[in-house]
Amino acid sequence: MAYTVLARRYRSQSFDDVVGQDAVSQTLKNAIDADRVSHAYLFCGTRGVGKTTMARILAKALNCLSFDKPTTEPCCKCDSCLAINTGEDIDVIEIDGASNNKVEHIHDLRQNAIYRPARSRYKIYIIDEVHMLSNSAFNALLKTLEEPPDHVKFIFATTEPNKVLATIQSRCQRFDFKSIEPQEIAAQLARVLDSESIGYDSDVVTAVARLANGSMRDGLSVLDQLISSGADPLDMKVFEDVLGEPDRDRIASLLEMVGSDDTSGVLGMLDGLLRDGMTPLQIVEAAIEVLRDMMVVKAGGSEKLLILTTAEKNRINSIVEQFDIASIIYAIASLEKIRYPVKESQSARALLEALFLRLTLSEHFIGVNELIKRIDTGRLNVKKKLTDSFKPSSAGLSSLKNESVSSESSPDKASCGRQPEMQTFTCRDLDEVVNNWQNITNSLGAIQQRLGLSLAKSQPSEFDGQTLKVQFSASDKMPMQICTHASDEVCTYLSKLLGSKTTVKFEISQSVGTKKQARRSKGAGFSRQQKEQALQDSGVKMLTEAFKARVVGIHLKEQ
User: Fold this and answer.
1) Alpha helices of 196-278 — where are they, by DSSP H?
2) Judging by beta carbons within 10 Å of its beta carbon (0-12, 13-18, 19+), is residue 276 exposed, middle or buried?
3) What's the pTM?
4) What is the distance of C-alpha 2 from the center of its chain?
5) Among candidates 176, 219, 216, 217, which has minimal Cα distance to 45?
6) Distance from CA of residue 4 to its chain's centroid?
7) Is residue 172 a contact partner of residue 42, using CB atoms and an 8 Å limit?
8) What DSSP letter does each residue of 110-154 carry, written as one string?
9) CA dist., res. 479 & res. 157, Å (int)
10) Collapsed DSSP state (helix, strand, coil) of residue 293
11) Comparing C-alpha atoms, which of 198, 193, 225 is closest to residue 211?
12) Which of 151, 149, 142 is nearest to 171 (CA)?
């Protein structure tokens, strides 16, 4: 006798047996009890969640010969129930929408629908993947679907309801089948293994449920493959060997090396994974999964959000403290960004290694408060330097001598990666603030360029030693908005620059633009000789040559 796969052998036979779809089952049972069964249903959901199974159970409930009327508990023993289970019942017609998608097929359906069922109460049409029907086929079905004969029921199943015409959906009762919870899949897989008298490790059931990704059928198919290996009991080694799944413990070790800045270890681990047969794409996807679990733990998420074995939970908890949540999110986004390039590129290994080295050497994200503290202590590093462990060890690189780099060209180590120190401008009144305003905004711009440039568009108008009012012209609303949105940061920086706690208030003033225009107009009457003299100034020439710049305007220096 031919072998029957687990997904068919353990297919649910009643409403109560369907895993993870209690709401749909209960609604259909209530409709049968109340004699309010619709003439058309649309079952929507991803693959393997029980759409076709539910359609067959509903067909058995309506046509079970052991009862005089539809029942919520079909016997599964009468000729009708047995024939429906095998897909051979003459009155329950299962149609594949992908291969019967033309208008001619729908015309045949309409002609056959007018005839009464041969032995059952209803003639039931189950159309799987109904979204594959052409628009003309949908339109041909509309009239029959709206006013079908009393003895006809339609049950449509689809994984893409968005492709089903709205006119079709409006004539059906729609049920959305949810993805099945991993815990429910694991429980069902355990029952199947117990029925088959096969020993198993609970971690294997958890791993298969995770791999099923919400699909009961996928989970049973994977379990069937493991059982076919002949291993008894089933353990994680069998799972990894038979399915070729990456060892999550090694992926966790790889991420641990990333968190500890071990560039040499990262390259070695990647090499080992690739040598063991993993593709770059598999490594990327496995790393994303582990990082997702780390993100949930770091964010304090519920354990229900994690589908992990006991060993995996312990491993995640041991390395998650090396990362902050912003770094984890950044790593996930970076890995996702190279998923397609790694799949298609001829240099996939180089892309993979480059990304993991980038993650290893990148600075962890820091908040504003920590940023200010680092500014105060003069230890704000833009990025991590290569660690001492990252040294060329290849014989091919041994010819590179330290003497080749002259000591004169080496920058001062103390100044590498450090922001300029903040200068303090002690201002007792408004005049002193105005006189130092350009220097103040320049100092702020050296730390926060955007804020410095925006604040430079303003003019101080009032200062009493504690509160500073600055005015923007009506044409500078955008710089004012930037400063307003970052008002806390502006107050913090200006307090440090002015040497005392300062509150800053922003306002629009028409006079500011007039004053600026007046200052600009001072240079409008320059003679050609004066302009040439200004351009020949030694300081101007030095700046234009050093920065490859050009002079765009000449203004008189304010007194």
Assistant:
1) 202-212, 216-228, 236-243, 248-259, 263-275
2) exposed
3) 0.61
4) 44
5) 176
6) 38
7) yes
8) HHHHTSPPSSSS-EEEEEETGGGS-HHHHHHHHHHHHS--TTEEE
9) 56
10) helix
11) 225
12) 142
**Tokens, residue 316:** 């995640």
Rounded Cα distance, 416 and 146, in Å: 76
Which residue, 116, 114, 180, is CA-closest to 147?
A: 114
Domains, in order of start, for the chain: 6-176 (3.40.50.300), 182-243 (1.10.8.60), 248-361 (1.20.272.10), 430-517 (3.30.300.180), 522-559 (no CATH)
Residue 467 forms beta bridges with which residues? Answer: 503
Q: What is the mean pLDDT of each run of 10 residues along the chain (559 residues)?
A: 85 92 94 94 94 95 93 92 91 90 87 90 93 89 87 94 92 94 92 92 90 91 90 86 84 91 92 90 93 91 83 88 88 91 90 92 57 54 43 43 41 44 73 84 82 86 87 85 86 83 85 52 53 73 71 60
Give the residue among 430, 426, 445, 556 at the shortest CA–CA distance from 497: 426
CA 319/CA 260 separation, integer angstroms: 10
Note the residue count of the chain.
559
Strands, E, within 427-480: which ranges?
459-463, 467-472
* 286 neighbors 251 (Cβ within 8 angstroms): yes
Position 282, amino acid: Q
The residue assigned the tokens 């200010």 is 372
| Residues 188/218, Cβ–Cβ less than 8 Å | no
**21: helix, strand or coil:** coil
